[in-house]
Amino acid sequence: VQLQASGGGLVQAGGSLRLSCAASGVIFSNYVMGWFRQAPGKEREFVATINSSGVRKEYSDSVKGRFTISRDNAKKTVYLQMNSLKPEDTARYSCVARYGTNMYSRESRDYGSWGQGTLVTVSS
User: Fold this and answer.
1) What are the phi and psi torsion angles at 45 (to 5°)?
2) CB-CB contact of 49 with 105 (8 Å)
3) Beta bridge partners of 36
4) How far apart are CA 91 and CA 103, in angstroms?
5) What is the tens place of the pLDDT at every residue in 76-92?
6) DSSP 8-state symbol, 61
7) How many CB atoms lie within 10 A of CB 87?
8) Rounded alpha-carbon distances, angstroms, from residue 123 to 9, 15, 19, 21
């Protein structure tokens, strides 16, 4: 799976951004998709995941209620709508894919395909 993320940038605290990740080379609807992030000097962290139909979603406690993951299987794209952004959300956000319609996971080792990431910077 080839994944291309976009939509990162600089935003003030309290603002919003929407990240997109376009997939190619696969039957997108066969894949669970997700987002992870890594801040400078910190370990990679699970953000959100969505099953192949888009019905089931999971979020980390740190973003629940502020971020929304969604997908458009016709466009082969997964999104991450980020609202009420905080400086601690500053990180490189990577989209991930895992084969299997309901094989969603919070573990980075379970995802075989990773995009290059897009940088999100939240100023205070």
Assistant:
1) -130, 135
2) yes
3) 46, 94
4) 26
5) 999 999 999 999 999 99
6) T
7) 11
8) 11, 10, 18, 24
